[in-house]
Amino acid sequence: MVLLGGIALAGLVVAVYAAWLFHDLPDASELADYRPPTATRVYAGDGTLIGEFSDERRIYVSYDQIPQPVIHAFLAAEDRNFFQHGGIDVGGIGRASLKNVFNLASGRRLEGGSTITQQVAKNVLLTNESSLNRKLKEAILANRLEATLSKEQILELYLNEIFLGYRSFGIASAAYNYFGKSLAQLTPDEAAFLASLPKGPNNYHPKRHPGAAKGRRDWVLGEMEQSGWLTPEQLVEARAKPLVTRDAPQRSDYKDADFFVEEARRQAAANPQFGEQLRAGGFYMRTTLDPTLQTAARRALMQGLENYDRRHGWRGGWGTTDFADGWQAVALKEQAPPERRSWQAAAIESVSGNTVRIRTARDDKSGTLLASDAAWANANRQLKRGELIFVEPQGGQFALKQVPRVNGALVAIEPQSGRVLAMVGGYSYALSSFNRATQARRQPGSAFKPFVYATALEGDFTPASIVLDAPISFAGGPNGTRWTPENYSRQYYGPQTLRRGLELSRNVMTVRLAQSVGMKKIVDQSAKMGLPGMTPNLSVSLGAGEVTPLEITAAYSAFANGGRRVTPYLIDYVQDRDGETIFRADNRSCRECGRGFSGQESPRLQQRGTQVIDPITAYQMSSMLEGVVQRGTAASARGLGPWVAGKTGTTNEYRSAWFVGFTTDIVVGVFIGFDDNRSLGSGEAGASAAVPVFTEFMQTALKERPARPFVRPKNAIFRTVNGIEEAFRPGTERQAPPPRPTGPAQPVGPQNYYEVIRREQEAASGAPASSPAPTAPPPPKKAPAEDLSGLY
User: How far apart are CA 456 and CA 219, in angstroms?
Assistant: First the structure.
């Protein structure tokens, strides 16, 4: 009876324990639709991988996308009998149990002998605790999984779920992070190394523990040969290969789009269609980025900022050293911008005039600075022994380098669509992630003037209309004073055409024009074109409002796009993990795109954007702004050829320098300025600071998108005025001055504009003008300087 009672009690205990064990087991059927958190992968317009958004860096791949050598490697390492057992490998458990007798005695972690099915149950449905209870639950769930899912589905979950080190979740991410390859490109030895990692990625880190990593890899290769998945010859060949991996996990091989990718992430995170799933939903995001233009933009802006910095002299080393033991390690803590990989930390060993010896910190090599660089530095601040500097190898010597404090932005947009082709928000994303292209609101200065002129042309003015360039003042200045806008160098040219006033960026003419047109109209028109929030003050006509580089660049797009305003965007379309398109920027419909086109006219899509100015006005502005490049303040960009237009901009005290330029197919905005809005220094105007960056970038852009003539509106009437063909709206051509009576038509400059106007007045009235025109100031010897008047 006692025995029977003991058996009954034991049975009751077992039953209670089993009930407790089963009551909180998760449902294995949940795994039928389970997908682990997966990275959103971000691609350029040409398919180049440029970044990813993720909490767990994972690329989900289906079973049929996994090559057999990869599958064989993991089966050999983890579960050779996977396709034969029912979820539990009794032989494997027996072997592990023998080892665990010793592990329990020594206090070590229990070993598994777990099958891949059990590992899926543990990784997805259970915790990582090491206990008998968890092992029993794992076994029960493994049996349920085998009844719910196919072997292929279980293996697919396992290979996508496991953590393999190097910030890699799943085999596809690991293949890229360790080897820079897709799964299909892996060799057997590389697949074997990945299969060696599930038991302990840190124990087999290829850089910290190279011997252990290669040894574990070679063991996996041996298991593959034992299972018949490698021949003896293949085994010898694979083991002979060195284990070569990347130094660190990498997001993508393309490194130039950090500002762009982060802005795309911000915009996507604000979209409720993605929300919290952005970092885990496994989306495929195709962006508008052009990698060639993006690289050109980064290089042009960085070089332009460095050129500006060099014009303002050497500031001294970023640290000092006494060359005590370990100085190199201290010096290497200060990193050069990642975008300048050739720069090295170094220390000055000796200075004798412009002969300067340095020693590099990384490889402890001695050398001399270029004499020209030493002279440049010494002219502003004497180089000293012990100064820590950055240098770059150059022709057997070293060039002296300095990280600029000034910053800036460059944006390139396709005017017909609004696609943002390139975006650089600063000198270096690693040094400052603040995106000046989208987050910095600054006064545009004279870069705003085209919106004043466009508003005038929408009314009764034409490019040939005359406005007086002469001093003017208004009541209402600060502290009861009068506001007196001034031209550059306080020079005034008298009566001028609108074209010439814009080409030479005449401030007083612009204020007179704005007063005549009305600031309310100008502010309203600017808002229609994408620059809202301006106040209707006359100072705004000279650029006293605030804009971002992206906003003003997009607003200029209407000039190149026949007067249509487009909204700039970075994300072209997004697909979910199943390939379904869940977002598309271009929502235009095409009813006839499904029909055949043989012998028929192609279907036409409706134009993008909103018509905000007359197409004739857009052409007039494009032609006038082309004149800015050919004859005006941006003449240093004339070498880019015809059909390149744009406008310089400089604000009070040279605080910001701008240039927004365009052709028919691309609009580019460049901004240069300090983050604290201090002065760039005397003479650092848009023409000298921003135009060279634009010119450098456009040399690449024009190879991809050659400039072509601006589209001539069908209903425009053309007349030649002062040697330039001007466009007029029907009926306004009567305002055009008659042609000059003698001589060939030639562009004229300020020196003879007064004479031209006098002759035009005489021709129009049939009698000599009542008073002779005053003598104009002599023409400038170089490209005309932009007006830099006080705005207040």
Answer: 80
For residue 19, pLDDT beyond 90: no
534 CB contacts (<8 Å, ≥6 apart)? 522, 523, 526, 527, 540, 545
Sequence-ordered list of residues with C-beta below 8 angstroms from that of 298, at least 6 positions apart, any chain: 256, 339, 424
CA atoms within 13 A of residue 98's CA, in its CB half-sphere: 5
> How many DSSP H helices and E strands does the chain contain?
22, 22
The beta strands (E) that lie in 258-383 are given as 284-287, 319-320, 344-352, 355-360, 366-368
Separation between Cα atoms, residue 753 and residue 469, nearest integer Å? 12
Q: How far apart are CA 522 and CA 455, in angstroms?
A: 6
Angle at 652 between CA 651 and CA 653, to 5 degrees: 115
**396 burial via Cβ count (<10 Å: 0-12, 13-18, 19+):** exposed
The reported pLDDT for the residue numbered 557 is 98
- Work out the number of other CB atoms within 10 angstroms of the CB of residue 92: 18
The model's confidence at residue 18, banded by pLDDT at 50, 70 and 90, is very low
pLDDT attached to residue 105: 58
173 is catalytic: no
Amino acid at 436: R
- Identify the active-site residue in 52, 78, 156, 786: 78
User: What is the dihedral angle through the alpha carbons of 13, 18, 21, 25, rounded to the nearest 10 degrees?
Assistant: -160
What is the distance between the alpha carbons of residues 126 and 137, in angstroms, rounded to a whole number? 8
Please tell me the predicted confidence (pLDDT) of residue 250.
75
pLDDT band at 752 (very low <50, low <70, confident <90, very high): very low
105 touches 69 (CB < 8 A)? no
Average model confidence (pLDDT) across the chain: 86
Residue 529's pLDDT is 98
pTM here is: 0.84
Look up 182 and say whether it is catalytic.
Answer: no
- Answer whether 175's CB lies under 8 Å from 162's CB: no
| CA atoms 416, 422, 427, 430: torsion sign | positive
Cβ(217)–Cβ(164) below 8 Å: no
Assign 454 to helix, strand or coil. Answer: helix
Asked if the model's pLDDT at residue 176 lies above 80, the reply is yes
For residues 234-268, b (16+ Cβ closer than 10 Å) or e, as one string? ebeebbeeebebeeebebbebbbbbbbbbbbbeeb
Q: Which of 446, 526, 539, 789 is catalytic?
A: 446
- pLDDT of the residue at 769: 37
Confidence of residue 762 (pLDDT cuts 50, 70, 90): very low
The predicted-structure confidence for 684-728, as pLDDT tens digits, reads as follows 999 999 999 999 999 999 999 999 999 999 999 999 999 999 999
